[in-house]
Design goal:
Low-confidence stretches: 1-13, 31-64, 78-90, 131-141, 418-422
Radius of gyration: 22 Å
Order of helices and strands: EHEEEHEEEHHHHHEEEEHHHHHH
Largest sheet: 6 strands, antiparallel
Structural class: alpha+beta
Strand content: 5-15%
Number of strands: 11
Number of helices: 13
CATH class of the largest domain: Alpha Beta
Mean pLDDT: 77
CATH architecture of the largest domain: Alpha-Beta Complex
Number of domains: 2
Length: 469
C-alpha cells in the first residue's frame, strides 16, 4: 500500500489537492514500469560484463541509477494528468518534476533527509520570512529553489514532487566552470538562501541560542558530525586515495616542487576527512554568528539559469535557481563559498573577480536582511562593513576546507560530465573496495583530463599564495 503525504502549495501555481493526488498515482505507475525496466537492463548489462571480464573506468560513471526522474503534466482545469517528456505550453497545465528513489537504493537515506528538509526545515524558514516577496511574487525561500508541491513515502520508494524549472526555460550552464556573469548570479542566489536562515536564527535567539534551537528542532541538518563512525572510516579511505592517487599525481606532472609542498603539508592523507570536519567545528567557536544553513553541494551542477532573449540559449543569464538540497547542513557561511569557487570557477576567474564576487555576496546579503526587517517589522543590528570584513576572514580560513571538498568532487564531476549526483560517499568507497583495476582506470582518465589538471593546479597555486601550503 502506498501512503501519499499531500501538502497544499503555498504559492503560484495553485493546484487542487485532488489533481495532485491523481498526478501522484500516475507517477507511481510510470515510475514503477520504468524503474523495473532500468533494473532489468542493468542486470543484463552486468551479466554481459561479467562474461567478458572487461573492466573500464567508464563503469564508474554508468552504474545502476540511484534515483529516477519523471515529468508529469498536471491539468488544473480538468483534473487530469499524463506522464510527459515534453514541456507543456498550455496555460491550464503545470509540469511537475518528480524525483523517485527506490527503497533499495543507496541514495534512499539521503532522499528521506531531503523530504524532511522540504517538509520541516524550509517550512520554518518560510514562517519567519513569510511576509517578504521577491521577483514574480514568490515567497523568500521559494524564490531561489523549486517549489515542493508534495512528498510521499511508500513501501517501495519515496518521491518528491517539485516545480519543473525546465518548463520555465531554466537550464544548466553548458560549462562546468562558470564565467563572471554566471558566478555573479550564483553568489546572489546563495546570499538570499543564507540570509533566510540567518534571519530565522536571529528571531529565535542571540549569541548562539538561535543555532541551538534550530539544531534541536532539526538535528538532521547537522554537518559531518551526523555521520556514523563506519561512514567516517570509509570517508577517510576515499579522501586519502583521491588525494594521493589523483590530486598529488596531477600536481607532480605539472609542477614537482609544488607537489612536494603539497605532500609536506598533508603527510597523512587518510586524516584529510578529520581535518575537514575539524575546520567546520573550529569555526563554530571562531564566530557562531556566521553559522547558517548551507547548501552543502553548491556548485555549477546544482544551479539552473534563465537567459535573456528568445529561446533557451540566447543572451546573458538573468536568473539563477539552486536545486538538490539533500546535502543541506548547518555550517560556516564561507564553506559554501569556498567550495563553489574551487569547483565551479577557473583560477583565472578567481584571480580577476574573487574580491568583487565576495563584495557582491555581502551586498546581496545585506539587501535581503534589510528587506526582511522592513517587511516583518523590527530593526536589525547588521553592520555591513563588519560583516564584509569577517566574511573575508572566514573565507580565507575556509579555503583549506574548499580544497578538501574538491579532492573528490572535481575528479568525479569533471570526468563524469557533472554527474556526481549519482555518486555518494558509499558508492565511491564500494567501487574502490570492489575493483582495484576499475579505480586505476578511473585514475588514468583523471590524469589525462586537461581541464581537471588545470583546475587542480590552479587551486593549489591559490593555496600557496594564501600560505596554506
Amino acid at each position: 500500500m502506498t501512503s501519499i503525504s499531500l501538502k497544499k502549495p503555498s504559492s503560484f501555481p495553485q493546484i487542487p489537492q485532488e489533481v495532485l493526488k491523481k498526478a501522484a498515482e500516475s507517477a507511481l505507475v510510470s515510475s514503477f514500469v520504468e524503474l523495473n525496466s532500468c533494473s532489468r537492463k542493468q542486470s543484463i548489462s552486468s551479466s554481459n560484463s561479467n562474461r567478458t571480464n572487461s573492466s573500464q573506468s567508464s563503469s564508474l560513471l554508468h552504474k545502476k541509477p540511484t534515483s529516477h526522474k519523471v515529468v508529469i503534466d498536471v491539468d488544473t482545469k480538468s483534473s487530469s494528468s499524463s506522464s510527459s517528456n515534453e514541456t507543456s505550453t498550455a496555460s491550464n497545465k503545470t509540469t511537475v518534476f518528480i524525483k523517485v528513489t527506490p527503497k533499495n537504493s543507496p541514495a534512499f537515506p539521503d532522499a528521506l533527509r531531503e523530504i524532511q528538509i522540504h517538509e520541516e526545515f524550509l517550512k520554518e524558514l518560510n514562517q519567519t520570512n513569510k511576509a517578504l516577496l521577491f521577483r514574480n511574487d514568490r515567497p523568500p525561500t521559494l524564490g531561489f529553489i523549486p517549489i515542493c508541491f508534495l512528498t510521499q513515502i511508500s513501501e517501495d520508494n519515496c518521491m518528491i514532487f517539485l516545480e519543473n524549472l525546465k518548463a520555465q526555460d531554466y537550464q544548466k550552464c553548458p560549462s562546468l566552470l562558470l564565467d563572471f556573469n554566471h558566478a555573479l548570479l550564483a553568489v546572489e542566489t546563495l546570499a538570499r538562501f543564507h540570509s533566510s536562515s540567518y534571519y530565522t536564527r536571529k528571531q529565535l535567539g542571540v549569541k548562539g541560542k538561535g543555532s541551538l534551537e534550530l539544531l534541536r528542532k532539526f538535528p538532521y541538518v547537522k554537518g559531518p558530525s551526523r555521520l556514523t563512525e563506519e561512514m567516517k572510516r570509509k570517508a577517510r579511505e576515499v579522501y586519502g586515495k583521491f588525494f594521493d592517487k589523483i590530486i598529488c599525481k596531477i600536481v607532480e606532472g605539472e609542477n614537482p616542487s609544488l607537489a612536494f609542498k603539497l605532500r609536506r603539508k598533508f603527510k597523512e592523507p587518510e586524516l584529510i576527512w578529520d581535518k575537514m570536519e575539524a575546520l567546520l567545528e573550529n569555526e563554530k567557536y571562531e564566530n557562531d554568528d556566521f553559522y547558517v544553513a548551507c547548501h552543502g553541494d553548491f556548485r555549477s551542477g546544482n544551479l539552473m539559469f534563465k537567459y535573456a532573449g528568445e529561446g533557451r540559449t540566447g543572451g546573458d543569464p538573468e536568473e539563477c535557481r539552486m536545486v538538490d538540497l539533500k546535502s543541506l547542513q548547518w555550517g560556516p557561511i564561507a564553506s559554501d563559498l569556498a567550495y563553489f569557487f574551487f569547483t565551479s570557477t577557473s583560477g583565472k576567474t578567481r584571480e580577476e573577480f574573487e574580491e568583487k564576487l565576495l563584495a557582491f555576496y555581502c551586498d546581496s546579503f545585506e539587501e535581503q536582511l534589510k528587506s526582511r526587517y522592513e517587511t516583518n517589522g523590527g530593526q536589525g543590528d547588521f553592520d555591513i562593513e563588519d560583516f564584509h570584513r569577517k566574511l573575508e576572514s572566514q573565507y580565507r580560513r575556509m579555503l583549506e576546507y574548499g580544497f578538501y571538498r574538491g579532492i573528490t568532487a572535481l575528479p568525479l564531476f569533471m570526468i563524469g560530465n557533472g554527474n556526481t549526483m549519482a555518486w555518494g560517499l558509499e558508492e565511491v568507497w564500494e567501487m574502490i573496495d570492489r575493483s582495484q583495476e576499475e579505480f586505476d582506470n578511473f585514475v588514468a582518465d583523471c590524469l589525462k583530463c586537461k581541464d581537471l589538471n588545470r583546475a587542480v593546479v590552479g587551486i593549489v597555486v591559490q593555496l600557496v599564495k594564501n600560505r596554506i601550503v
